[in-house]
Amino acid sequence: MLILDYLLMKRISARFTKSLIRQCLAAMLIFVGMSYAQSASANITVAEYMTLRAEAKTGDKGADARWRYYIIGLMDGIKALQAPVASAGVQLHFDMPNTLPISLKFLDAFIQETIGRLSAKGILTKRIGQPMALLIALELKTAFPCPE
Description:
Elements: H1 2-42, H2 46-56, H3 61-86, H4 104-121, H5 124-127, H6 132-143
Helix pairs in contact: 2-3
């Protein structure tokens, strides 16, 4: 009887272990899929940004939150880009005055001015599929060039 109980428990344990392994693998695949989707969505195009901002301005609280999180991510990215060299007293990519803080209000105004200017020049249609972060980095470099 003892041997029968042992074999039965071993069989149950093996089934449970296989089931647990399958569940863990499924959870890992879901996690990796979600991580990939979120990292991809962080690099939105200019067109996607314009749509997101328009939705945010309609009063949709969810769209407003997504737009704010995107702007905050852009601000953090800009600060992270400049931080290593700024601590050494050098500006590598662009030279923004210290009196001009990178804030949500500043970045939104800068982006809207950039979109308006590019639209007026007829260049916006060429850059509409470009990643928004790249457009902002290039425009900051143009607006605040580093001294030679």
